[in-house]
Amino acid sequence: MDVALITLSAGLVLATAVLAWFTRALAQHARLAWMEAQATRREMEYARELGARPLLAFDAHVVGGKIGFLLVRNLGRGPALDVTLRFNYWDEDPRAWYERSFGPGESHQFKIPEPLHSDVFRARDGQFTVEISGQSTDLEGRAIEIFDAADFTRWTRDAENAGERIVGRRKIAGVEPE
Predict the structure, then answer these.
(1) If you ran DSSP here, which 8-state letter would residue 92 be given?
(2) What is the per-residue pLDDT for 121?
(3) At CA 147, angle to CA 48 and CA 92, rounded to 5?
(4) How far apart are alpha carbons 31 and 5 in whole angstroms?
(5) What's the CA gap between 67 and 117, in Å, rounded?
(6) Between these two residues, 168 and 171, which has the higher pLDDT value?
(7) For residue range 52-100, what is the model confidence (pLDDT) as tens digits?
(8) For residue 91, what are the contacts with CB-CB under 8 A and spacing of at least 6?
(9) Please, which of 69, 106, 129, 173 could form a disulfide with 61 given CB 3.0 to 4.6 Å?
(10) What are phi and psi of 68, to 5 degrees?
(11) What is the third-level CATH fold of 54-165?
């Protein structure tokens, strides 16, 4: 009887050891699955944030072949709320602009100082850059800092070197190219 009890006890210990080993392996797989689920959740949250995030872009814009403006567009999928921008021009005091909401696809044109307003191609002879700073919020209330620049000098040089950049380029929805 002692041999049978020892044999059964050894079998029970062996079965417990095998179950413990499989349980450890299952716990490792469960931990990896949890880590992957967390990474997927973070990626989905980031994709959702980007899907509704505004993206303000700044560029030179020409009307009538040479009249220059600063063009501000929202290229993102979400609205920019409480937009506060500060434009630092090359020879004037900074200008401020506020807009309560700036929708996706919306654009605004701003008059730039002379001599470039009446002939933007005078920029090729100097250093004319508009520095833009400011902030806005997205739909979730997250703050978005804005720091950018529109280099009119480089833009005019590029436009002269590639004439097709102006002719046929639609920069504002609903406005046909000249």
Answers:
(1) S
(2) 78
(3) 145
(4) 38
(5) 5
(6) 171
(7) 889 999 988 877 777 888 899 999 989 999 999 999 987 777 899 999 9
(8) 113
(9) 69
(10) -100, 140
(11) Immunoglobulin-like (2.60.40)
Single-letter amino acid code for the residue at 171: K
Alpha carbons 56 and 50: distance in angstroms, whole number: 13
Question: Residues 6 or more apart from 55 whose CB is under 8 A from it?
Answer: 74, 75, 76
* DSSP annotation string for 103-162: -TT-EEEEEPPTTTTT-GGGGGGS--EEEEEEEEE-TT--EEEEEEEEEHHHHHHHHHH-
Average pLDDT over residues 10-22: 87
- Please work out, in degrees rounded to the nearest 5, the angle formed at the alpha carbon of residue 139 by the alpha carbons of 106 and 61: 20
d(CA 6, CA 4): 5
The answer to whether the bond into 94 is cis (omega within 30° of 0) is no
